Fold this sequence. Notes:
The protein is mainly β. Helix content is 0%, strand content 51%. It has a 4-stranded antiparallel beta sheet with strand order 1-28-27-26, with no helix packed on it. A 4-stranded antiparallel beta sheet has the order 2-3-4-5, with no helix packed on it. One of its GO terms (biological process) is mRNA splicing, via spliceosome.
Amino acid sequence: MAFPEPKPRRPELPKKLLGTLECKQGAVRAVRFNVDGNYCLTCGSDKSLKLWNPYKGTLLKSYSGHGYEVLDAAGSFDNSQLCSCGGDKTVVLWDVATGQVIRKFRGHAGKVNCVEFNEEATVILSGSIDSSIRCWDCRSRRPDPIQILDEAKDGISSLKVSDHEILAGSVDGRVRRYDLRAGELYSDYIGSPITCVCFSKDGQCTLAASLDSTLRLLEKDTGELLGEYTGHKNVTYKMDCCLSERDTHVGSCSEDGKVYFWDLVEGSLMLALPVSNTAVQSLSFHPAEPCLLTASEGRVQLWREESFVVEEGAVA
């Protein structure tokens, strides 16, 4: 006898505070889950990069080698390497286990805002205030980038990479998507400086946050505007946006100290999560669970859904 499939649970939003990391690295400029969501990286204004187990609240390793504040970081698919970038104009490739610098890539003319690995972690892509995206080969000893994408007319604020695309947001108000298979560049004009871009999990849509306090959901292939989300405040700082683990909700940091979530389809505000008295600098949504990390001031907070129960023996 075949049993019916269990009914999928209604998507829940993370609103229960489970733990706080006192990062002790100045202002936390960015927080990022690793690929499987078991660990996280924090980028500090004190030039340090730190690796944590956020569920146990334990610091696993500190990485020092940047000459100025660290602005973004990412982990490789196998968790063996990290890349980071910062105000010292460099991109750094790290060995996770030893904490050693493997390579330092220099070439950007200004601070580097964002960094990503490609899927195989053979190439690092970095976006800078100098208006360029540079692609660095992790395996060669060449000091120069293998490719420079310089179509933007102003600084690159945000980058995402899929298996065959590069998505970039720029202060010039455009979202650009480089389709590497087709060799095509698609550009969508938003008008206000872009602070963050991301792909939906199903790869059909792109989400862009901009300094007019608006998130916009675009159909990837046509550029059609599918939804606009407002209610938060973002007029000054670079702020992260995200989609929830099942593409049901759209989320954003805000300068009023909250994190906002909207229903993706209806556009209605579902949650304004009070996080801090000052602007929420960065957020990261877990790849598979309704779990959220937020960074504000010098700390990172871990949030789960209301129904979440901490397992015996686990430390929240």
